Amino acid sequence: xxxxxxxxxxxxxxxxxxxxxxxxxxxxxxxxxxxxxxxxxxxxxxxxxxxxxxxxxxxxxxxxxxxxxxxxxxxxxxxxxxxxxxxxxxxxxxxxxxxxxxxxxxxxx
Length: 109
Known about the structure:
By secondary structure, this protein is an alpha+beta fold. 21% of the residues lie in helices and 33% in strands.
């Protein structure tokens, strides 16, 4: 497998020199779907409350998808809090699909 060119990206949305949103993506190699693939882990999709519903999040995710395609990624994945129905509705309305995976964490500090 070829090396991933750019291992991470950060998209920032601005209005009048103020940051109103941001999202980031880290490149990973995954075998989760029974094949080796370049994938992106999307993190920190955040839009200022005053600008939600105006297409800011949608635009950032569209740019993220284009970047991922340019890197040869075949899938993007993200985690959302199961109680954040607004975020889940937002992602599902943009063709993101739920999985049966469970997220676990372990602090190592």
